[in-house]
Write a structure and sequence with these properties.
The structure is a homodimer of 244-residue chains. The first copy, chain A, contains seven helices and ten strands. The first copy, chain A, has helices spanning 10-13, 122-131, 133-159, 162-179, 194-201, 205-217, 233-241; strands spanning 44-48, 53-55, 63-69, 72-77, 83-89, 108-111, 115-121, 187-189, 221-224, 227-230. In chain A, the strands form three sheets. In chain A, strands 2-6-4-5 form a four-stranded antiparallel sheet. In chain A, a hairpin with a 2-residue loop joins strand 9 and strand 10 (227-230). In chain A, helix 4 packs across helix 5. The longest helix of chain A is centred in the middle third of the chain and has 27 residues, at 133-159. Chain A is globular and about 55 Å long. At the A-B interface, strand 5, helix 3 and helix 5 of A face strand 6, helix 3 and helix 5 of B. Chain A binds a DNA duplex (30 and 30 nucleotides) through residues 161-162, 193-195, 203-207, 209-210, 212-213, 224-225.
Chain lengths: 244, 244
Amino acid sequence: MNDSRTQTPEAICNPCKHCPIRDTGTCDLGLQAGEHLTTLTPDSFGTSRAREKICRKGEPSPDALILCRGWAYRFDVLPDGRRQILDFLLPGDLISICAPFRNEHSGTVQTLTKTMFGRLNRKSLQSKILSEPRYLMRIAKSCIDDIDRLEGTLGDLGRRSAIERVARLILGLIRRLEERDMLTDMACEFPVRQEHIADATGLTPIHVGRMLRQMRDEGVIDIRKGWLRVIDESTLQRIAEHTH
Amino acid sequence: MNDSRTQTPEAICNPCKHCPIRDTGTCDLGLQAGEHLTTLTPDSFGTSRAREKICRKGEPSPDALILCRGWAYRFDVLPDGRRQILDFLLPGDLISICAPFRNEHSGTVQTLTKTMFGRLNRKSLQSKILSEPRYLMRIAKSCIDDIDRLEGTLGDLGRRSAIERVARLILGLIRRLEERDMLTDMACEFPVRQEHIADATGLTPIHVGRMLRQMRDEGVIDIRKGWLRVIDESTLQRIAEHTH
DNA sequence: CGTCGTTTTGACGTATTTCAACTTGAGTGG
DNA sequence: CCACTCAAGTTGAAATACGTCAAAACGACG
């Protein structure tokens, strides 16, 4: 389906062996060191170019997808075209946390960069979960984390100003980038466009631009030309927490 | 804790025996008829008056709570006092879907009416879930439903107008009231104040009032004096779907 | 009868949207 | 190497949806 092709050249033949996020991503189901290589290794891998849809909401799928490399986002479209980005996906993320339990994709996912993703057969994933309480608890914990995140975002969209929303979104991404060691000197590649920030925060691209410019002028963060640089994290946090 | 007391007078001694929502609420973990009485019967019950907090976010709790009678809502408060209502709770709802898996309350819950709620010991709930895949799948399904609902609400708050948000909230409540047979002649008691609708939709009570008045003037719904009456459900749905 | 919580009304302020024009930079092809 | 295109970002002016404030009306309750 789509343009994603299953690859098998030697360098990609067993990507997990050298996967940099093997111990921090979802593949590690909370197991002891050394244990994990036998547990959640994808059955196959796919790749995509930038700006490509790798799955569509409602589409049936025998696999749960896990993002191995690159950036993506999951979103919903209202009948009249308005978009809401539900979350951004970084390497190590399950493409949908619901995937282990349902037979169809629970959202449309589009890439921001070239990506590689793994396919985990749902049936075998489920039988693993059922056979080992630790797996179950790990998955349950992921679900709860997701619910927490969603409920937090609910408060953001419902009750926070534009500048707060943008600051919180960026801050959340920074946290996750740090966990994955993707931040060097508080900077990294940042393929998220203003349009995406707008669709995630419920604002207009134009207004997002104004907010970013304001924070750049005030020496807080600098997002430009596909790069993010965090200059004054504590101020960013103050903005996000609405404490002047 | 709080003003909630464990009651044991005869009429309330085994409320599950005559529980009207025994087969539709969360107590029924998707089992066959006749099976359920041995499964999810609360260990004890509590009651509360209207406008009382029955649990607080972060507070440790050995029990998962389930609402047996009455209305309540779960919410978060930002540091500066702004409130976001996360969901409304009707009879049969688990007070937090996360409850089976975590040792503390994941949100503050306040009642709208007098309520009765049951306490399910988490440890025994967990061992039930672990012992029977069907239980697990039922709980997982609830989590996924919750995530779906939250993601839908995210789109509402991020991308929909005031009138749409209010219409969708009411419509969602109507659906759930219907499921529970709480609607007679498309009307029922409705202890939700404009202030609550505002905190759920991210609007001002005053603006919510304007939207409700508009829908009343147009003969769509009538919310007044603690009562809800649905007059023209199809128009309500048109408003909610933004199809003029 | 007064009190209190809730809703209503009107006038006004503002954060954010909308629209349209312009800049910038990267990519492409001649 | 330059001309072209196209996506992304910027700017400014005008429109509007929603918020704020203050006062009045309303009904429930003691």
